[in-house]
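Example 3.2
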Amino acid sequence: MGEAEAAPTVAQLRQAMARVGATAGAAAQRMDDGVGSGEDGPTAGVLAVPATLAELFPHGGLARGSVVSAAGSGSLLLSLIAASSAAGAQVAVVGLGRLSMLAAAEMGADLSRVVLVADPGTDPLQIATILLDGMDLVVLNLRGLSVPPSRAKVLAARARRNSTVLLVVDGRWPGAAAHLSARVSGYRRGAPGAPRCGYGRIDGWDLSVSVRARSRPPRSAQLVAGAENRAG
């Protein structure tokens, strides 16, 4: 997508962001909320995460104004989208057209608060830049891109100014505040009384989730993903 072709898409996104602003809340108000100093649970300065993952984060959730990278299971992304949207956050998902919103809904997501940009063109960072002005959480697929430090600093500053969380996947982002990783550690059967392991319908799975941050040692927790996992 060349600059001329991208212009209409960018203009449409800017118009959409103007409409979203009324429901997403002003960035200034979100910045005034601040981040609490305790670790007893989510504060106004964080986005909600699944309850079993809250202990992994310094303030019980994703700190507003930060850039976080994630790798591993797509179920981790779905659970974060579900938890934040169910708590009232406006979420944008960029370049992840194959991510199942049905699965997100089954996890408790409020899909009326989720915007999908399945194909952001050749410059997904440009689309993310616009979305950072009006959303609470922007999930961005870098598609293997290694982001130059100079450009990463620009987007990080924009996320900080707007009190937005930028969650990046499948790429390298210098200076991310935290790194999340997940792997499947077990499966759950949906059919009661199945005779033995290997039989029955799988309707959930266990994820081992780890968080590395600059301000604290690595931490890990278990997350149940699938239809039985409900946000809130």
